[in-house]
Design brief:
The protein has one domain: P-loop containing nucleotide triphosphate hydrolases (Rossmann fold, 3-Layer(aba) Sandwich), CATH 3.40.50.300. The chain is built from 13 helices and eight strands. Strand 6, helix 8 and strand 7 form a beta-alpha-beta unit. It is globular and about 50 Å long. It starts with 6 loop residues before the first strand and ends with a helix.
C-alpha cells in the first residue's frame, strides 16, 4: 500500500440539474491552480457528461481497466488546468459483477495512481441509487450541491437520511449553488439544517455558495470551466473561495487517507448492495 495520503471528495446532491458536474470541474481546476494534483472521476456510470461538458473524447474508460485491457493511467484524459479525467464506463454491470480477481485488479490499478494524485474528486450521478451510495460511503468527504428549489432541498435531505440511518454517516458539507445573493445561500443552508436538526443526528458544514452567473452559462457553451474562460467573473471568484476552503479540510493520516482504502471500501459496498 502506498503511504501517500489522497483526499477523496464525492460531489453529490440527490436531485439532477443542480450543477454538480460544473462544481466538480471548476473546483478541480482551482485546486490544481493551487498546486494540488487532481484527478476527476466521472461516476455517473449511466449518463456520463464530463466529456461533453469539456469537449473531450475518450477512447477507453473504466470498463477497459476492469476487463484488464489497459491500466488506469492509460485511460486518464488530460482536462483543463492540468487536471486528469477518469472517463465513466458504459454501465454499472462491470462494477456490480466484479469477482475477487477484478476487485484486486481495481485496487492495484488505483494503487499505481496513488503517488500521482493529491485529490480525487468523484462526480456522482443524480438520485439515491446504490452506486451513488457506494461512492459516498467510500469517500472521506461529501459535498452536497443544493439550489433554492424545494425538490433540491428535499432530495438532499433524503440522501442524507439514507446515509445517516443506514450507513452511519453523520458529517456533510453543503454548497448552495446558483444563488442570487449570499443571503439566499445562507437561507438555503438554514432550510436544510432546520429539517436535519429535527429528524437526523448529523452535522452540516456550510461550504459557501456559488452565484447565478451568466458567464457560467457562456463557459458551458464554450465547453470550458468558467474559472478559465472568465476568471474574473463572480462564479469564478466563488469557486476559488470554495477551493481555498476545501484545501483546508483535514487529511486523514490513517489508512482511510490511502487511495487503496477508498477503492476497497467502494468495491465492498457495491458487493454488499
Amino acid at each position: 500500500m502506498s503511504n501517500h495520503s489522497v483526499q477523496v471528495i464525492a460531489v453529490t446532491g440527490g436531485k439532477g440539474g443542480v450543477g454538480k458536474s460544473n462544481v466538480s470541474i471548476n473546483l478541480g481546476v482551482c485546486l490544481a491552480e493551487m498546486g494540488r494534483r487532481v484527478v476527476l472521476m466521472d461516476a455517473d456510470l449511466g449518463l456520463a457528461n464530463l466529456d461533453i461538458l469539456l469537449g473531450i473524447t475518450a477512447r477507453k474508460n473504466l470498463s477497459h481497466v476492469l476487463n484488464g485491457e489497459c491500466s488506469l493511467s492509460e485511460i486518464l484524459v488530460d482536462g483543463p488546468g492540468g487536471i486528469k479525467i477518469v472517463p465513466a464506463s458504459s454501465g454499472t454491470r462491470e462494477l456490480v459483477s466484479m469477482g475477487t480477481r477484478e476487485h484486486a485488479g481495481l485496487i492495484h490499478a488505483f494503487s499505481e495512481l496513488s503517488d500521482q494524485v493529491d485529490v480525487l474528486l468523484i462526480d456522482t450521478a443524480a438520485g439515491i441509487s446504490e452506486m451513488v451510495v457506494s461512492f459516498l460511503t467510500a469517500a472521506q468527504e461529501s459535498l452536497f450541491v443544493v439550489t433554492n428549489e424545494p425538490t433540491s432541498i428535499t432530495d438532499a435531505y433524503a440522501l442524507m437520511k439514507l446515509l445517516n440511518q443506514q450507513h452511519g454517516m453523520y458529517r456533510f458539507n453543503v454548497l448552495a449553488n446558483m444563488v442570487r445573493t449570499q443571503q439566499e445561500g445562507r437561507e438555503i443552508y438554514a432550510k436544510l439544517t432546520k429539517v436535519t436538526d429535527r429528524f437526523l443526528d448529523v452535522a452540516l458544514q456550510f461550504s459557501g455558495c456559488i452565484p447565478f452567473d451568466e458567464y457560467l452559462r457562456k463557459a458551458v457553451m464554450r465547453q470550458k470551466p468558467v474559472v478559465e474562460a472568465y476568471p474574473r467573473s463572480k462564479a469564478a471568484l466563488a469557486f476559488r473561495t470554495l477551493a481555498n476552503k476545501v484545501d483546508g479540510w483535514p487529511l486523514p493520516t490513517t489508512p482511510r487517507g490511502h487511495l487503496e482504502f477508498f477503492v476497497d471500501r467502494l468495491v465492498q459496498g457495491v458487493a454488499a448492495r
